């Protein structure tokens, strides 16, 4: 951000050549000697002088501690107002980062569900309810999300639903890992072809969230 315009200290005009160089130096010295008043660190933050002094023309930068965000101008400038050196604005403040409660989900819940507000880096973990039928609910997505520095959650809420893939069958080949009678979310199966056949596709497949194998079940061909 460009600094706001500042009034410079008055210097003698070229229309008055009779003024001595010493007078010019004195005027410049009186201008550079002007300082802005001290501003302390904001609560839960820091005020950092760009050049180490409060002299006219310098800048004061503000940052907040982790878990807080800045309200107001990030940089103040020491400038002239009349014959006085003053800051270009009011000092900012550091406000605590807070998140609203995360979304509720169907067929599941999250920890700390009775809390009305969450602070920076507070986390919740989702879990699925017992399913009413023979197949369990699977948690689709990240089980844990946390309150981020922009007052939003780190990700979308997950989903609880039944995910069940068909029994994988491969002709001229066999399953060598991932045996089971039922294949739920993220179940992994590995195949190999019979002697004299080679595999087309991937030898490893995974049951994905829409109840299909990814990649598709491979083929064994001569």
From TrEMBL:
This is Membrane cofactor protein. Interacts with C3b. Interacts with C4b. Interacts with moesin/MSN. SUPFAM superfamilies: Complement control module/SCR domain (SSF57535). InterPro entries: Compl-Cell_Adhes-Reg (IPR050350), Sushi/SCR/CCP_sf (IPR035976), Sushi_SCR_CCP_dom (IPR000436). GO terms for cellular component: inner acrosomal membrane. It is found in: Cytoplasmic vesicle, Secretory vesicle, Acrosome inner membrane. It is a single-pass type I membrane protein. Its main location: membrane. The keyword tRNA processing does not apply. It holds the Pfam family Sushi. Disulfide bonds join 193-220. Keywords: Complement pathway, Cytoplasmic vesicle, Disulfide bond, Fertilization, Glycoprotein, Immunity, Innate immunity, Membrane, Repeat, Signal, Sushi. It comes from the Eukaryota. Acts as a cofactor for complement factor I, a serine protease which protects autologous cells against complement-mediated injury by cleaving C3b and C4b deposited on host tissue. May be involved in the fusion of the spermatozoa with the oocyte during fertilization. Also acts as a costimulatory factor for T-cells which induces the differentiation of CD4+ into T-regulatory 1 cells. T-regulatory 1 cells suppress immune responses by secreting interleukin-10, and therefore are thought to prevent autoimmunity. GO terms for biological process: complement activation, classical pathway; innate immune response; single fertilization. Residues 1-33 form the signal peptide. It comes from Pithecia pithecia. The keyword Amino-acid biosynthesis does not apply.
């Amino acid at each position: 951000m460009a600094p706001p315009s500042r009034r410079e200290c008055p210097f003698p005009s070229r229309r008055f050549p009779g003024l001595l160089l010493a007078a010019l130096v004195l005027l410049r010295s009186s201008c550079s000697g002007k300082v802005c008043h001290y501003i302390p660190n904001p609560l839960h933050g820091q005020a950092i002088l760009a050049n180490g002094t409060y002299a006219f023309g310098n800048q004061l930068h503000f940052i907040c501690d982790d878990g807080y965000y800045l309200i107001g101008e990030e940089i103040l400038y020491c400038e002239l107002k009349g014959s006085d050196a003053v800051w270009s604005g009011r000092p900012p403040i550091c406000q605590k980062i807070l998140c609203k409660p995360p979304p509720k989900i169907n067929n599941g819940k999250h920890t700390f569900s009775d809390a009305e507000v969450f602070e920076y880096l507070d986390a919740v973990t989702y879990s699925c309810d017992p399913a009413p039928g023979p197949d369990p609910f699977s948690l689709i997505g990240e089980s844990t999300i946390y309150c981020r520095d922009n007052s939003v959650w780190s990700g979308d809420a997950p989903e609880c639903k039944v995910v069940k893939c068909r029994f994988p069958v491969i002709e001229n080949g066999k399953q060598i890992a991932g045996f089971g009678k039922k294949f739920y979310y993220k179940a992994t199966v590995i195949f190999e072809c019979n002697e004299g056949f080679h595999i087309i596709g991937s030898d490893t497949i995974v049951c994905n969230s829409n109840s299909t194998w990814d990649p598709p079940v491979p083929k064994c061909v001569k």
